[in-house]
Amino acid sequence: MAKRLGILRANLCDIEKERKAVSPKRAATWAKILGYCELHFVQLALEDQIRKAGLNMGVTVSSKTNISKAA
Fold it and tell me: What's the pTM?
């Protein structure tokens, strides 16, 4: 699995053991590689960050078609 994701096995182990977090951007990339929904993987990454912060909250992720950059 680590080879398919383009990471070291040790890094994958750290993620599995919750010693390292997965960023939303990386979650989206891995979803593409594995053929899963990007929105779901990003939501899981964000929910993990919220949980680790000790917050009793959830998050909903949706795609945005018009993304404007700040000038």
Answer: 0.83
How wide is the angle at C-alpha 60 spanned by C-alphas 57 and 64, nearest 5°? Answer: 145
HEC profile for the chain? CHHHHCCCHHHHHHHHCCCCCCCHHHHHHHHHHHCCCHHHHHHHHHHHHHHHCCCCCCCCCCCCCCCCCCC
Q: How far apart are the first and last CA of the chain?
A: 41
- Per-residue pLDDT of the chain in tens (71 residues, 90 and over written 9): 999 999 999 999 999 999 999 999 999 999 999 999 999 999 999 999 999 999 999 999 998 876 666 55
